[in-house]
Amino acid sequence: MKQFFYPSSVAILGVSPRPGNMGRNILANLENIGFPGEIFLVSPKGGELGGRPIYSSVAELPQTPDLAVVLTPAATVPGLVEDCGQKGVKRMVIETGGFRELADDRRSLENQIVEASRKYGMRFIGPNCIGVICTESKLSVPFPLLDRPIRPGGLSILAQSGGIGLTYLHGCSENKVGVAKFCSMGNKLNVNERDLLAYLVDDPQTEAILLYLESIVDGRALYDLIRSTSKPVVVHKSNIGATSHAIASSHTAALANDDAVVDAALKQAGAIRAHTVHECMQIVKGLSLPKPKGRRLAIISRSGGHAVVSADAAFRHDMVLPPFPEEYLAPIQEATRASVIHLQNPLDLGDLFHFELYVDIVKNALAQEDFDAVVMVHGYRGPEVEVSRQFVAKVGELCKQAGKPVALVLLVDPEEMIEAAKLSSIPLFPFAEEGILALSCSQKAGGIPVTDRLGCAEGFDQDMAQRLLASAGPDGWLDLPEALHLLNAARIPVAPFVTALDAEDAVHAAETLGYPVVLKAVGGAELLHKTEAGGVVLGLEDAEAVRAAAQKMMDRLKPQRLVVMQQIGGGQELIMGIKRDPGFGPVVLLGLGGVTAEALGDVSLRLAPVDDNEAGQMMDELKGAALLKGFRGRPPVSRAALLEAVMRLAILADRMPAIAELDVNPLLAGPGGVMAVDARVRVAGDLPKPGH
Amino acid sequence: MKQFFYPSSVAILGVSPRPGNMGRNILANLENIGFPGEIFLVSPKGGELGGRPIYSSVAELPQTPDLAVVLTPAATVPGLVEDCGQKGVKRMVIETGGFRELADDRRSLENQIVEASRKYGMRFIGPNCIGVICTESKLSVPFPLLDRPIRPGGLSILAQSGGIGLTYLHGCSENKVGVAKFCSMGNKLNVNERDLLAYLVDDPQTEAILLYLESIVDGRALYDLIRSTSKPVVVHKSNIGATSHAIASSHTAALANDDAVVDAALKQAGAIRAHTVHECMQIVKGLSLPKPKGRRLAIISRSGGHAVVSADAAFRHDMVLPPFPEEYLAPIQEATRASVIHLQNPLDLGDLFHFELYVDIVKNALAQEDFDAVVMVHGYRGPEVEVSRQFVAKVGELCKQAGKPVALVLLVDPEEMIEAAKLSSIPLFPFAEEGILALSCSQKAGGIPVTDRLGCAEGFDQDMAQRLLASAGPDGWLDLPEALHLLNAARIPVAPFVTALDAEDAVHAAETLGYPVVLKAVGGAELLHKTEAGGVVLGLEDAEAVRAAAQKMMDRLKPQRLVVMQQIGGGQELIMGIKRDPGFGPVVLLGLGGVTAEALGDVSLRLAPVDDNEAGQMMDELKGAALLKGFRGRPPVSRAALLEAVMRLAILADRMPAIAELDVNPLLAGPGGVMAVDARVRVAGDLPKPGH
Predict the structure, then answer these.
(1) Predicted complex ipTM
(2) What is the CATH topology of the domain spanning A496-567?
(3) Do A247 and B626 touch (CB under 8 A)?
(4) Which of A245, B11, B562, B685 counts the highest number of beta carbons within 10 A?
(5) Identical fold at A1-130 and A148-288?
(6) Which PANTHER family does this chain map to (chains A, B) (predicted)?
């Protein structure tokens, strides 16, 4: 990937002196940023532009460029890729649009490009993108003219949409957020977010990463990369509704993802998810400040109302406001004339107009060990402008000196905001809420260490699991005994059960298990909804009852087998399951069971496998988690046993890709442990062979 | 209230030539806005200022001013109020701070002000506020210098905090939102939001209202006012967390409200609740546009990415995107050169650079009957600036001509945003998400017609209810039979029951009711948690069982009475209740019952009384509402019976203010109706006297 960002020569294919030609903007961007390498221009009609020759073909170029940038009509692109391949070009940025995002019949054009690139071992970005920027190598090849300098810095931006990418790029420049690398990925035919993210994770210039995605091609790889890095990663994943999907597909050929899985995966990986452009801009502003080491804010405001609003924001974003120490407040108290302020956190400066003191107020707040970050809300007009601008300029320095963040909120008109931004070395926030959101996200951002998620793999009987999965019928479903045995193979506790072939067999099983027992008919897909079909009978108290029920079941349903199971009393009903996401792979699910909880949809998802912490978060983030922890005098369920069951299920999901879906419903949980009493398993794709 | 906004003369108390005197700003603001009436200055030291005499006392004024504005130290304020009273002044704006918001011992100062004002029949706004503005009468008395003209228009702003009030006032001017009236209310000792809102609801200049509140004094009156008007009302209610409460109390002496009740009341009244300053500004921008008649948006974007983000926003804000008609798209299709766009809604203009056509695209979209509003997302730079500015200027006109809103989103740098705003007659939005939020809120805003909420009062036996409430014990609790009879008095169905005094009595009762029955011990507060104490026995199937259980209960618990109740089988468990909010009065609650639903806290609130629609919304907004509507093959509960029970409970809450709290738990609901099987009622305050 590095070669995309650090080429020593660039060829622009599609530059011409014709009015309206956009290839010229690429040249202008390269010249404006001061690209130090060679630039070659190519266009069939030849000629010259600004003193540079235009070569009429790639073949004619005097040397092989490190990077070829293409902005020619879609139909010409496959030929140009072929030409570049023959010339020995290894990296291309194809900015041309008009491929699958326009119509399905353009896929053949795309296929030709992919084939040509394969033939020559080339990598390319796009098509349908606006290209690449690197502030270190001074490379800038987007086709829109970038009329403002890009501020160099530590944020790298990957965007599936050129328009949104530019919005973030410009927003960074306007907001004092320096940029390391930028890439608009378009249709992602060859290079995708995984390739680029892998590069940025290792790129020493990149300190934080912003990803704008409309679809996620290989969610699992993305997840692994985000999880692996300690660099903060902000993900603005759009395309969440059906209409969004239609437009996204016509714009960057994006497919829809299951948003609940995306959400869970990003949370699990330690990414920050932004939901709107405005929110995302605030978050990247926060990331450009020093990272808060904790949640403790000192809020200082010139307006009491904005102090209240700030405290609300701290409450919403899970930040805390410790009191200011006496020695911090003393000089402020002394300086206030009419003492119309009540000294607390948030600190309302009220009628304290000694602007010189403001610098000390911020400096001293940064020096306090009790605080991890400072929010300074300052509004000024008229005669206060000059001294306030000096203050604004100073705050950035204080922030850097202290290595602690200050969210500097300026309540000023837009014109003054522009002037203040020129003087400030740190981002400015329009309101306290935006600053506090930014600090909160920055504080939470960063990789989550991967602990040993495989501890619970111990004892997992993979051979047995494979044999059981191989027993699936043509419809993919396992019979109940095999489904339960599969849980046993993963060492997930299952209520004791025995398989029986007839009524006498069932009675014998019941005598062994002890009463009361449950009887379930086993017979393939048509009996999956056993309760409705009369295929489940509960509360059989003695041999006679078992015999009668079993006989009736055999007569009516003609099942292949019967399951006789110990009836487990009490316990909290939970559901636990596996599903397989096309992009993110195996996902485990935990939820409250019973019809009420299911109607409320109270479930938590994580990618498998999961460690102790992740399983614990799944349990804790259930809306009804209180039910598991001793609600209304009930005994709490065994946390250890529940987490172990979730971890073991996740191992099963991870090791056995043939499982398309699995439901344990219910899993009964009590103080002594958990126990599965029913399960459904569907196998898909190539069935595993027993013994490999 | 009108006299506060339309005085023909104003006295400013506390103006002096001393450097740093803030009273002079009040004078400057009045002069800048062009106040046409007389202005008098008062300060103990006398003198003159800018050619005006400074009177040394109120008594010396040559005439009685219509309005006196005070900005002097807190200790002097009671005396000045007395002076004004003697002079015959009827309206004061007390801007001075330093009262209860600073320390509790300042309450006596406040009391003196209140007493003096009462004595002379004066009304006053404040203290601790920044005053009043009226663009029609050209009155402007805030003490901060307002260095920009205020745009006249239809939005009136009431703010408890001066700082937030100014932020909204300036924000309106910057965003093309015209203002009718402004008032910062401060500590609300005399005039509060209810008084001002009542005035604004009738004020012909006021078309929409923005309320910023940190506390709500008389929530019920506020609710009634918002509900009564068809003018859109946006409420930014802050002060939601414990820390916020501490700072709000020291800043505008605000008490905390129960935020769940505030939320329910605002929703019920048809108000729009804003949660942040940024969000609130977007909403008022939306209100300054024509109101969308429905939810159908036409989204037009120059960037595909912004189109995707727009579609996400439409999805989140419950707006719909119908397809564009063929005849609308035909000219656009013709004009696109390379046809790199796929014509759908959102419409991605792709490489369509005919800016002249943009005007027609917007105009024709506004003309379509299929759309209620247009979102136009336009980004431009460099050579496109001139033609884009013409377009921006034109869109406002189109919007007014069509009487339909356009959310004009400009993706430009901040400098250009300022220039474009000068040319635009309508608000500009920074991103599509903000524009769509604004349109969505505007569409939903406006009063909700009050239907007949008292239909369910028919048959309510108020005398009986009063007698029952009078039977409460010294702790305020009713015994179970009286609680159940109270429900009967409100004609809420209760499971058939009989009160018994001993075991034989209980058996006789059970024989009359029919088996199975439930037995409950009745004996005052110590038996309220009957289940834990063994005071409830279920499933008694015959006389013998009843006799044994009753005898055991009598021996063990020595209850005063027993309740024998028919045991009702099946049905969905619900909870229903009354609570009384100090500000909003009687509140009814409906929730799913059973331990799972209770742990999940799935409840809905409304102020009592409620009509059919409101009761229906309570049912429908439960997260587990599906359970009531035929989930997994269960029969749906009787909607009519459930809504009637809620409405009847709300009548009870409304008519019987002595009820401090009431819980029906559970209320069993099935296809045939609903039935209360247990109830708790607590009476507080003066007990009602039977017979009136």
Answers:
(1) 0.90
(2) Dna Ligase; domain 1 (3.30.1490)
(3) no
(4) B562
(5) yes
(6) COA BINDING DOMAIN CONTAINING PROTEIN, PEPTIDYL-LYSINE N-ACETYLTRANSFERASE PATZ
